[in-house]
Write a structure and sequence with these properties.
Elements: E1 6-12, E2 17-20, E3 26-39, E4 45-57, H1 58-67, E5 73-87, E6 90-104, E7 117-119
């Protein structure tokens, strides 16, 4: 058995971008920054930041675009996918997390809707009335 699972919690580095697919569905893309702090061998504190590209489909994509903005915190669970394409004779690669679950983190006082989860199971669409906003 093989496993391809990513779980991250961090802050959005930009507003989600929502696009329509030729099939009529929606896809949203955004990125999340995560960090870790550790001590180097000489005892000094070091912080390391990673940036993760996220894509999400369907109703979850619409909810992400509607309720998350740059700086919002979010928990994302999904699978890692690397895409490749050729442009001007050069091969390009992009590694992304294809989100299956996006859970909105705590909101700062005065920001819209309360924290909530948006989940997309394989082939299952979520009706907006099912999400407690």
């Amino acid at each position: 058995m093989y496993l391809n699972k990513a779980m991250i919690f961090g802050n959005l580095t930009r507003d989600p971008e929502l696009r329509a697919l030729p099939s009529g569905g929606n896809v949203a893309s955004f990125s999340i920054a995560t960090n870790r702090t550790y001590k180097k061998a000489d005892g000094t504190k070091q912080e390391e930041v990673e940036f993760h590209n996220i894509v999400v489909f369907g109703k979850t994509a619409e909810n992400v675009q509607r309720y998350l903005t740059k700086g919002s915190s979010a928990y994302v669970e999904g699978r890692i996918k690397t895409r490749s394409w050729e442009k001007d004779g050069t091969k390009h690669y992009k590694t992304e997390i294809v989100a299956e679950t996006v859970q909105f983190g705590p909101r700062k006082q005065g920001e819209g809707a309360p924290a909530a989860a948006a989940t997309q199971e394989q082939g299952e669409e979520i009706a907006s009335e099912d999400i407690p906003y």
